[in-house]
Design brief:
Helix content: 40-55%
Distance between the termini: 38 Å
Number of helices: 15
Largest sheet: 4 strands, parallel
Order of helices and strands: EEEHEHHHEEHEEHEHEEHHEHHHHHHEE
Radius of gyration: 25 Å
Structural class: alpha/beta
Number of strands: 14
Oligomer: single chain
Strand content: 5-15%
C-alpha cells in the first residue's frame, strides 16, 4: 500500500482510498500571469511520477489541476502590458501547457478554470455569511478564521501563534476583524474585471477557488490534495477551513513537495533575483534532465538546480541513452520480477524515488556484467528491468540517430562563431531559433551538442 507524508497528521501514513482501485487527486495549478519557474517544474514532475506509478500499479487515477485565470497578478500584468486579463491568461496558459508537454507531464483529467466557477463561489460565500463564518467588510467579504476550532492544522501552529505572526494588520478601511481572517470576495476597483454578487461587483479571493472546483469535480472526501509546501499555509489551510465551515468533508490526505534552491543553498525566489524560468531551462537543456534531477531527490526535500547539477544529470542521461542503444533488443524481454517488487516497496515508502532510481542503475550494471560474462539471457532480463523502471518514471531513454539538416547545421555553426566572439545576444537568438525548429542545444565542456 502507498504511504505518504500527510501534512495534516505530521507523519507518513497509509493512503487509504475512498474507493478501492481508484484515487482522486487535486493539485493546485498555475496562476497564468507569467512564465512558469523551476518550482512549477519540480512539483508537476513530482505528481506526474506518482500518477504514472499508480497507473502502472493498476490504480485508476482521476487527477484534477486547476488554472487560476483571474487574480491580482494577472490584472497587474494586463495593466503593465496594455492588454486585457483574458489575453494575459490565454497567453501564459499556452506557455504553461507548452512547458508541461516538453517535460512529458501527463495532462490532467480535468483542468478547471476559476472564471467558469464564479457563480458557485458566490453561492459558497453566501452560505459562509449565513452561518456566521464570514462577514462583509469595507472592501469585500472576509472569512472569520477563528470560527474554525482547528484553524492552523496544516501550518502545524496554534491559532494564537498565527495571529501574532500575521503580516496583514486589521484596518478600519478594510473592516477586517482579525489578522488571520482572509478575503473571500474582493470589491472591484474602477476598470478591473468583475462579476455580480450580493455585496457588490468584484471577484473571488484565491483561497475560495480551489474549494469549489475540487469538490465539484472530485466530490466530498476526495482522496488526496497536493502542491508545493509553500501552499500548505495559508492557501491549503484556508481551503480546508472553508470546506469544514460548510460541513463538506474535504481532502482525506494532504501531501506537499519541497522547494527549489539555487546552488549554494539559497532558495530561488523572484525577490532574490535568482529565478530561472522553466522555458529558459527547457531551451538550454534536454527536458529529461529536470525529470532526472527530480527523481534523484526525495520529493519532500529541497532540490538544488544549477549549472553543475544540470551538467551531472546531462552526463547521466547520456550514459542511459548509450545503454538503451546498446541493449535495444532487450526492450521486448521480461524484466526481473524481484526487482519490480523492490520498486514497489521503494515507491510505496513515501515515494522514495532516489531508492527506486538506485534499482535502475543496479540493473544497468548487472546487464553490463552479464554481457561481459557472455550470459545473454541474464543481460536481457536486467536490461528489460532498466527499461521498465524508466517507463514507470516517465523517463524515456535512448534516442534514434537523427541526421542534422544542412540549414540547421549552418545555424549551429553560426551560433558557435557568435559564442566565440562573445556575442551572446546573437547566440541566444540563434538558440531560440533552433528551439523553435524543434532542436535542443546543449553547451558543455566538450562543446555544443544538438538533438531533438
Amino acid at each position: 500500500m502507498l504511504h505518504l507524508f500527510d501534512t495534516a497528521l505530521g507523519q507518513v501514513t497509509p493512503i487509504e482510498a475512498r474507493r478501492p482501485g481508484q484515487l482522486s487527486v487535486y493539485v493546485c495549478g498555475p496562476t497564468v500571469s507569467g512564465e512558469p519557474h523551476l518550482g512549477h517544474g519540480r512539483f508537476t514532475l513530482t505528481w506526474d511520477v506518482l500518477r504514472r506509478y499508480l497507473t502502472w500499479s493498476g490504480i485508476e487515477v482521476r487527477y484534477v489541476s486547476n488554472i487560476t485565470d483571474i487574480e491580482d497578478k494577472i490584472i497587474a500584468r494586463a495593466a503593465s502590458d496594455g492588454t486585457t486579463t483574458e489575453q494575459v491568461a490565454a497567453t501564459y496558459e499556452k506557455v504553461w501547457w507548452d512547458a508541461m508537454d516538453r517535460l512529458g507531464v501527463l495532462r490532467p483529467t480535468e483542468d478547471p478554470h476559476a472564471t467558469r466557477y464564479v457563480p458557485q463561489m458566490v453561492e459558497l460565500i453566501e452560505g459562509l455569511i449565513r452561518t456566521g463564518h464570514a462577514y462583509v467588510g469595507g472592501d469585500g467579504v472576509y472569512f472569520a478564521s477563528e470560527t474554525v476550532p482547528d484553524y492552523g492544522l496544516l501550518a502545524r501552529q496554534p491559532l494564537e501563534s498565527l495571529r501574532s505572526g500575521a503580516r496583514i494588520e486589521v484596518t478600519e478601511e478594510s473592516g477586517k476583524r482579525s489578522p488571520v481572517d482572509f478575503v473571500l470576495w474582493k470589491l472591484a476597483k474602477p476598470g478591473e474585471p468583475s462579476w455580480l454578487s450580493p455585496w457588490g461587483d468584484g471577484r473571488p479571493g484565491w483561497h475560495t477557488e480551489c474549494v469549489v472546483m475540487s469538490l465539484d469535480l472530485l466530490g466530498d472526501g476526495f482522496d488526496l490534495h497536493g502542491g508545493g509546501n509553500d501552499l500548505a499555509f495559508p492557501h491549503h489551510e484556508n481551503e480546508r477551513a472553508q470546506a469544514e465551515a460548510i460541513g463538506r468533508p474535504f481532502a482525506r490526505h494532504w501531501v506537499h513537495s519541497g522547494m527549489v534552491e539555487a546552488e549554494g543553498g539559497e532558495k530561488m525566489s523572484k525577490s532574490l533575483g535568482n529565478t530561472l524560468s522553466l522555458p529558459e531551462l527547457l531551451d538550454a537543456h534536454d527536458p529529461r534532465v529536470l525529470r532526472l534531477q527530480v527523481l534523484q531527490s526525495h520529493y519532500r526535500s529541497p532540490i538544488t538546480i544549477g549549472p553543475s547539477t544540470l551538467a551531472a544529470a546531462t552526463n547521466t542521461l547520456r550514459g542511459l541513452d548509450t545503454f538503451a542503444s546498446d541493449f535495444a533488443p532487450a526492450r521486448s524481454a521480461a524484466p526481473d520480477p524481484e526487482v519490480l517488487a523492490l520498486l514497489r516497496e521503494r515507491m510505496d515508502d513515501d515515494l522514495d524515488t532516489p531508492g527506486a532510481l538506485r534499482l535502475l542503475f543496479d540493473a544497468r550494471d548487472r546487464a553490463r556484467t552479464a554481457t561481459a560474462a557472455g550470459s545473454g539471457a541474464d543481460a536481457a532480463r536486467w536490461a528489460a528491468t532498466v527499461f521498465e523502471i524508466a517507463e514507470v518514471f516517465g523517463l524515456p531513454i535512448g534516442r534514434e540517430d537523427t541526421a542534422v539538416p544542412a540549414d540547421i547545421q549552418a545555424l549551429v555553426d553560426e551560433r558557435t562563431a557568435a559564442r566565440a566572439a562573445r556575442d551572446f545576444a546573437r547566440s541566444d537568438a540563434l538558440r531560440d531559433q533552433l528551439a523553435a525548429a524543434g532542436w535542443i542545444v546543449e553547451d558543455g565542456p566538450s562543446g555544443t551538442t544538438l538533438h531533438r
